[in-house]
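tool_call predict_complex ligand=magnesium ion
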Amino acid sequence: MQASADRLDQSSAPRRLSNQPPLMELEDVNLWYGGTHALKDVSFDLFPNEILAFIGPSGCGKSTALKCLNRMHDGTRDVVITGRIELDGTDIHDPDIDPPMHRRRFGWVAQKPNPFPMSIWRNVAYGAQIHGLMAGRAELDAHVEDCLRRAHLWDEVKDQLHKSNGTDLSGGQQQRLCIARALSTKPEILLMDEPTGSIDPIATAKVEELMLELKPDHTIVVVTHSMMEARRVADRVAYFHLGRLLEIGPTDEIFTHARTKEARRFIEGKFG
Ligand SMILES: Nc1ncnc2c1ncn2[C@@H]1O[C@H](COP(=O)(O)OP(=O)(O)OP(=O)(O)O)[C@@H](O)[C@H]1O
Ligand SMILES: [Mg+2]
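tool_result ok
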């Protein structure tokens, strides 16, 4: 009974946020790590310029689902993915898709800030440089400044761009540097795996504010363990449970009228 109710919840959930066509569509995605069946029949759409939050208990497949979007599982031994994942209507696993070009459309921000052990300037310039996005040094300098300004870090680091090492910054600054670095390749979609999971509340507020500012030009998928954060930033919330996407819908609806008891209990803090 519960299983059929769950299936109904998933299929009847509002798949459409607006009248725009989806940017990405996932249909019956399954993923195995060897013998571990980590994603089970996951289907959802991602719409342009939305913030979609993945929530759910530890080990339920949130990071695994996030990594499917930019093909981060490529090359990982024993990973098998079935189902269909489309970006702009094209299967992302189509042989004609060049994986590095696909990945370039995404920026990745991890839970633990992980700047390169090099200058602040190089941390940000690197992505644009390797993809040859800027014509010369002056253009690159302007791009680095733009990325740092958009990440709200420019004023704090503008006098030490070449002197300081990215790893010498505070944790919150490092995370904003990683966001500036992610913006360097001009991605359309930002994938953030618990971006505020290891920084303090003030730094968290800055990162959340930044996500809202980036939304008009980007689509953001964020994994979070903070229900408050999901409520503050997300347009829609996807609740994962034991590898299944049990519910997806507008944030207010999920937080006030979750249809599955699993999602209700998780949101109420009864497990997870
Ligand atoms: N590289 C891997 N090899 C084998 N199993 C893995 C691997 N990565 C994840 N798993 C397993 O897949 C399942 C989903 O893991 P995943 O990391 O996606 O969960 P999560 O929801 O992100 O959890 P958390 O909230 O703790 O980060 C878990 O059972 C996990 O142990
Ligand atoms: Mg995770």
